[in-house]
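name: query_chain
kind: protein
chains: 1
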Amino acid sequence: MDELEFRRRIYADPETTDSDVVEAAKEDEKKRHFWNEQKKLDQQLKQALKVDVPDDLANKLIWQQSVDEFTRYKRKNRWYMAMAASVAFTIGIGLTMWYHQPLSLGGQALAHMQYAKVEQAHSKLPVDLNMVNAKLASFGASFSDMIDGVEVANYCHLSSIRSLHLIVNTPQGKMSVFVVPERNDISVPNEFSDSEFHGEGMSMEHAKIMIVGEKGADLSEMKKAVTSRLQFSA
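structure:
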């Protein structure tokens, strides 16, 4: 057995009893010395690994695992807890408004605007023209071009009417665009406002549109962007 093969076998198992390895060691003092050195090293490593286990180690490990899992849970759910608190706050505002006054479509749009600050898209895909048009298709409508800055496109309900709510990031702050299907029993106000937001409504061929922005924001550019792009199938 050559030197390379002998060393490879010894490295693999210093305690080997293979006859060809034993025979090679008997015939060569150098190989025998190398084998003895590896056996000693192997014994030292095994001894170093022999550490007394504390009696309460299992309890400590279970406790530490529980602490680590709780820490990860808090970190992972901090955003969800904040979102839940924001949604609960928004719902409280909305219910208060609905209780104290009969909300028109404009009033409900203002209530939704509070939620627009924290609302996230239901889909993880980026909001693009195809996504928006897929949602508008149920209204028999589509955009010819994408409106710049659309961050969220979700369905919502205004007076129990399924509508499309677009949240748009503009240089003047967040704006909401509501596309409400045409109904004879509803109307949108030309203007509406509260202490924080104001909006404007308009009627198009087969839908009613409401634009809502922060108090003092100029809504004319957004109205123009919507009316110039929104088209309806025959």
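note: The helical segments are 3-12, 19-27, 29-48, 57-100, 105-116, 129-136, 220-229.
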